[in-house]
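Form 7-S
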Amino acid sequence: MTTATTAPASRVKSISDPAYQAFQILHIGFTVAPILFGLDKFLNLMADWTSYVAPIVASIVPAGPFMLFVGVVEIAAGLLVFFKPRIGAYVVALWLLGIILNLLLIPGFFDVALRDFGLMLGALALGRLSQVFSD
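Output:
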């Protein structure tokens, strides 16, 4: 017996649809948050971001320049989510996985790693909802 795969069912984009509302919340959130956090890697207004770099990573690449690179990637990821959420959501999820792995190498940052795991789940949910609501 063979089964055929079909494209996701198309749904009407209605603001009264709870699934569409969830898509919009995640789409806006995963656009704005990475861009703001990325910009702050240059400004350091919210945190000293270099303290979030695992020592093993900092021994390879100095924390300051590394965080500037991270900022550029986060801004690009936020823009990708805005324009292409079907792709951007999974890029952000993978990026968050990298952040989680980095944080697990730093004693005392396990709570932040757990928070980022929750964010990664949200990015994956956006990716799934994008299959239905994104063009």
